[in-house]
């Protein structure tokens, strides 16, 4: 028998409870066997349902209006085609083809015999400004723009309201009067006499400054005098046939 000296701690006797390896974190033991069960999950693992989220977002992105370059001769046709792509079976706003594309084609066909160089430059700036107004609206709120397109009358009001700024900011009232006459008579009267058409004419006239009004009036008077001179210069005095008299001497 071994005698421990006073103050010496007794040796530790291992037991099954103290020497068994500690269970791993988040490990559940089986009640019957005490064996470790499957490790409990402490992190989120994506399941199959999550895979549909990126796909849904991708589909939504494809259904948004596409960006279309401005300043092109077929801009409105491309916008109409893009609408049909996103809305199968629906007709695009009538404005695209019945107004926008129609007058884009008509003004693009004007040449040096119809407009002065200043008038042709104004034409190009205005066509780009009108298309840019639509693209700006699309970029500001693509989903809202897509909804606006599905309301043809609301879309026409928006488009017509953008016309006066495009006309005037592009220099309409700086043009020679002969350009103003040609520009003013190019649209069909039926398009100008609608409620939206009349409003755009009034808005455009309201943007005319006093200086512009005086210039237009002066140039119009000069053009009128020139036309009157041309008219009378082309007239020949009437030929008067006097009766032949036979005198006796």
Give helix % range: 55-70%
Our estimate of the beta-strand percent is under 5%
User: Strand order of the main beta sheet, please?
Assistant: 1-2
> What gyration radius follows from the Cα positions, in whole Å?
42 Å
Query: What class would the helix/strand composition place it in?
Result: mainly alpha
> Which sequence of SSEs, written as H and E, runs from N to C?
HEEHHHHHHHHHH
Low-confidence stretches: 37-50, 223-228
Broad shape: elongated
The biggest beta sheet is recorded as: 2 strands, antiparallel
Number of strands: 2
Calculate the mean pLDDT score and round it.
Answer: 76
How would you describe the overall organization of this protein?
Strands 1-2 form a two-stranded antiparallel ribbon. Helices cover 57% and strands 3% of the residues. It has eleven helices and two strands; from the N terminus they run H-E-E-H-H-H-H-H-H-H-H-H-H. With 249 residues, the protein is an all-alpha fold. Helix 3 runs antiparallel to helix 4.
Question: How would you concisely characterize the structure shown here?
Answer:
With 249 residues, this protein is an all-alpha fold.
Please tag this protein with its features.
249 residues, mainly alpha
